[in-house]
Amino acid sequence: MERISRPHGQLRDAVIALAMAAARDGAIENLSMREISRRLGVSPGAIYRHFEDRDAILKTVAEAGFALLGERFQAAMPVGSSARDRADALTRFEGLVLAYVTFARTHYGLWRLMFGPAGCKSRFRDPSRAPTYMWLGKSLAELEAFGRISTATAADQYFAWTAVHGFADLHSGPGEETPLLDDLSRQQARRILRALGADADARAP
Asked: Is the pTM value of this prediction over 0.85?
């Protein structure tokens, strides 16, 4: 990784930027407080004035990762919008699946951090941001309303998420190459709907 310059008076932001870069590079596990201070050219004590410990930095980076994922979901399915019809409900669901899989592929190290202990222990209480899990629930509710699926319970939402998450994990990671990932992601979305009781016109392969 390149050394990241510290913006004057913005040490906290510089620490987060450095840790984000390490997460994207898959090198976050090797990033210590001492290494951070060395790269930023400050004393460890200066960093401790902003973060209690290394775990606090990882938690902040995980939160930033979820915010970034939320931006991808927002582009696919804007908060406050609603599906216009059955076809649109399907398109919006496929868009969420593709956004998630693409995020895992392009930000694999960060994605792994988000769903590791640092991310799972975080509560993401920022009231200005919709929880990323919310998008999936809303999409499934739309699909149920338009008859694309027969059920959209909390258990169904969890099933759908694990199916997408597992698929993303299988097709991400260093050196992983999957041709036609967009098409495969949409096919996975259709399989999830079939499992939830999708009607015949949603049963494309």
From this structure: no
In whole numbers, what is the pLDDT of the chain averaged over residues? 84
Q: What amino acid is encoded at 61 in this protein?
A: V
Inter-helix orientation angle 181-195/154-170, to 10°? 150
**Eight-state DSSP code of residue 204:** -
Alpha-helical segments (H) within 83-170:
86-106, 108-114, 117-120, 132-145, 154-170
pLDDT in tens, 20-59: 999 888 888 888 889 999 999 898 888 988 998 988 999 8
**Which string of DSSP letters, residue by residue, matches 19-39?**
HHHHHHTT-GGG--HHHHHHH
Q: Nearest 5°: CA angle at 99, between 25 and 57?
A: 40
**Backbone φ and ψ of 18, nearest 5°:** -65, -45
Say which residue the tokens 């930095």 belong to: 57
In angstroms and rounded to an integer, the radius of gyration of the C-alpha atoms of the chain is 19
DSSP letter for each residue of 106-124? HTHHHHHHHTSHHHHT---
